Amino acid sequence: LELLEKRVKSRFSHRQIYLMNSFDFKQYIRIFKEQLSLPAEFPDESFAQQWNNNVQHLSDDKTVQGALQNLFHYTKDLRSLHLLLMLVVSNVTVHHPLIAASDLHEASKQYRMDSKANIVHGLSVLEICLIIAMKHLNDVYEGEPFNFQMVYNEFQKFIQRKAHCMYNFEKPVVMKAFEHLLQLELVKPIERPSVRAQKEYLLMKLLLDNNQIMDALQAYPNCPTDVKQWAASSLSWL
């Protein structure tokens, strides 16, 4: 029995189990409040009450909720929330003792100014189109995972509406562009690929939020107008 246990441990020791956070946005807001609030045993009771009342006010603020919603759709990883809160709290001083909604908004912008947005500037138009297709899927399915086939179908809708032969690539070419986005870590699989799984149907997640995409498109050199319009279009486009 001991030998069997050792063999099992040896065979499966390389395996990793990836767990996705299952909480919804309401719970995410509650975590935000819990992380920022001061404990009951804080020495200065008066300040603690003032601080915690302000945190409650922040959690009800629409601007703050919008910034948190963007981060929530981008990643539910609480380390990202902690990093955002560290940026916010680092601005607290004697002369600015309470966090304002504008502080969180600025910290959110600072958090988004990362290498991923800069990578977008070097992508091909086809790769940009795939990112926009994923953006629309995120909007429609509220951040739920998608696969390559869904992205390809979304891209085909754009081509059919615009009737543009310049965007009409063969499916293997589109797949290569999608794989390049994976290599750049702009998209990631939410589960480890198995040998039997078809790569067209592996569930994926986009690692760019809507603001990052729109900001990058504004700075993208010679971005076609119809591609920009597609990115900015509402759900009615679909």
Automatic annotation (TrEMBL):
Keywords (A to Z) from UniProt: DNA replication, DNA-binding, Nucleus
Locations listed in the record: Nucleus
One Gene Ontology term, aspect cellular component: nuclear origin of replication recognition complex
Any one GO MF annotation of this record: DNA replication origin binding
One GO biological process term: DNA replication initiation
Domain of life from the UniProt record: Eukaryota
Main location (coarse class): nucleus
Domain Origin recognition complex subunit 4 C-terminal, residue spans: 31-217
Name of the protein: Origin recognition complex subunit 4
Species this chain originates from: Grus americana (Whooping crane)
Gene: Orc4
